[in-house]
């Protein structure tokens, strides 16, 4: 099986830097089920193409299944895995391009952080649901999707199409995002995994897809298929993704839909909006606004001036799309300000707001950098009130099978005592007073899943 990634970004050979694979070399990597080869069929200034070719050894694959998944049929030796892109290719992709998936490129970091023109081709992809399903999955991620069904036998057109398609994606996407999307989505098309899955599989899913999967309109279907319909793991993954984004859940294909409680992220929105309503500000700024879902709700209130900033230009682009900025009237546009900025650096655009919101932001910073955020927000910008929410690590005991933090990018998660100690100190050092709120269902011993501090300036 083979997969290719091409770019026309100039110089196109910079693709080698982003993937950490030199265009002049052929590299081979051993897998438990065969070998993966990376090579560049095209590599010049105008266009560069990298190919990942996986040679599957059916004997090695059968032996690697282990005792947990015994299979004594001929199907373990005669199947479509040598040529169809399945979880085998996803595993090889994840390992071979491990560094590229992190978005790190010391020699071309600005390029690694940028969207570039990309073209991805998967010649044979098993796709239950056909071309329409492929478009349903990839189009919301910004790809132009070309999915052509593959006939069972061209010599006998009456036989119809097979379950396979030829997939081609074109778009302007950050390379790390594209590779992570393939890592998650290739197994979802086949709805099966070649290896035993446990709770660590949920962490892998959130690590690779947490930033875009949470708001994907077909996220439940993707989760269900990625986890090969293992009901317990699917429920855990869906619950954790619901915390990351307030998008309404959609029914996973051909799975029964159980009644669900209000997602925690929506409860956070409601709690923050309730405080804004109580404070009755004329201006609000959302620090770390992400895709703009909270901003859209603030814009429906009577707040006269609304701003949102984020360190990620990609997230700001999503926010602009979500808020329909292009279709705003002149009056609506004048009311909103979206800009890129980092909260650890003083920026004059942060100043002059009655209320600032830091919703699920501080835990994404390394603890040594919190001092810089405190200085920028509380010491220099000095809004009239600051609303800070963060996970309560004590409540994690309620999440069955949760290993580690709730999100792979969380640098820390505080107990209620640790959070209040930090907030009390920040308030005292900067002339604020602080009150505390719990968000979500409250456990008598563990508290609420989210804790909020409401700072008001003396």
UniProtKB/TrEMBL annotation:
One GO MF term: small RNA 2'-O-methyltransferase activity
Record-linked InterPro entries: 3'-RNA_MeTfrase_Hen1_bac, Hen1, Hen1_N, Hen1_N_sf, SAM-dependent_MTases_sf
Catalytic activity: small RNA 3'-end nucleotide + S-adenosyl-L-methionine = small RNA 3'-end 2'-O-methylnucleotide + S-adenosyl-L-homocysteine + H(+)
UniProt cross-references to Gene3D superfamilies, sorted A to Z: Hen1, N-terminal domain, Vaccinia Virus protein VP39
Domain Hen1 N-terminal: 1-241
GO BP of this protein: regulatory ncRNA-mediated gene silencing; RNA methylation
Alphabetized UniProt keyword annotations: Magnesium, Metal-binding, Methyltransferase, RNA-binding, RNA-mediated gene silencing, S-adenosyl-L-methionine, Transferase
Transmembrane segments: none
Cofactor(s), names only, from the UniProt record: Mg(2+)
Any matching Pfam family: Hen1_L
EC number in record: 2.1.1.386
Keyword Transferase: yes
Entry annotated with the keyword Metal-binding: yes
Family to which the UniProt record says this protein belongs: Belongs to the methyltransferase superfamily. HEN1 family.
UniProt protein name: Small RNA 2'-O-methyltransferase
Originating species: Gordonia malaquae NBRC 108250
């Amino acid at each position: 099986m083979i997969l290719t990634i091409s770019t026309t970004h100039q110089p196109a050979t910079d693709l080698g830097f982003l993937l950490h694979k030199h265009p002049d070399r052929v590299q081979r990597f051993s897998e438990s089920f065969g070998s993966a080869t990376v090579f560049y069929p095209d590599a010049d200034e105008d266009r560069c193409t990298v190919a990942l070719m996986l040679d599957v050894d059916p004997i090695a694959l059968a032996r690697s299944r282990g005792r947990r998944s015994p299979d004594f049929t001929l199907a373990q030796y005669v199947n479509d895995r040598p040529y169809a892109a399945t979880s085998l290719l996803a595993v090889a992709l994840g390992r071979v391009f491990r560094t590229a998936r992190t978005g790190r490129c010391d020699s071309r970091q600005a390029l690694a952080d940028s969207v570039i023109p990309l073209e991805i081709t998967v010649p044979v992809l098993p796709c239950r649901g056909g071309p329409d399903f492929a478009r349903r999955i990839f189009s919301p991620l910004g790809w132009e999707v070309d999915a052509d069904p593959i006939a069972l036998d061209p010599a006998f057109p009456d036989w119809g199409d097979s379950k396979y398609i030829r997939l081609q994606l074109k778009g302007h996407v950050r390379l790390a995002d594209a590779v992570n999307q393939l890592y998650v989505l290739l197994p979802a098309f086949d709805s099966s995994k070649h290896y035993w899955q446990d709770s660590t599989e949920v962490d892998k899913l959130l690590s690779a897809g947490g930033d875009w999967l949470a708001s994907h309109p077909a996220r439940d279907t993707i989760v269900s298929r990625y986890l090969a319909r293992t009901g317990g793991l699917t429920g855990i993954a869906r619950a954790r993704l619901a915390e990351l984004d307030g998008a309404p859940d959609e029914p996973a294909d051909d799975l029964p839909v159980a009644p669900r409680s209000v997602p925690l992220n929506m409860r956070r929105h409601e709690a923050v909006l309730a405080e804004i309503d109580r404070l009755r500000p004329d201006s609000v700024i959302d620090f770390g606004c992400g895709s703009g879902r909270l901003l859209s709700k603030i814009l429906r209130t009577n707040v006269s001036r609304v701003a949102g900033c984020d360190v990620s230009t990609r997230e700001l682009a999503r926010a602009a799309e979500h808020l329909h900025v292009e279709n705003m009237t002149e009056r609506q546009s004048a009311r909103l300000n979206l800009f890129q900025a980092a909260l650890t650096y003083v920026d004059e655009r942060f100043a002059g707001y009655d209320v600032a919101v830091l919703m699920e932001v501080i835990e994404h910073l390394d603890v040594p950098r919190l001092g810089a955020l405190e200085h920028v927000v509380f010491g220099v910008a000095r809004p009239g009130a600051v609303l800070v929410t963060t996970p309560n690590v004590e409540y994690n005991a309620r999440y069955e099978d949760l290993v580690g933090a709730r999100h792979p990018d969380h640098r820390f998660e505080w107990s209620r005592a640790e959070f209040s100690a930090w907030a009390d100190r920040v308030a005292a050092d900067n002339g604020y007073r602080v009150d505390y709120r719990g968000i979500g269902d409250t456990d008598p011993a563990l508290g609420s899943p989210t804790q909020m501090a409401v700072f008001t300036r003396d």
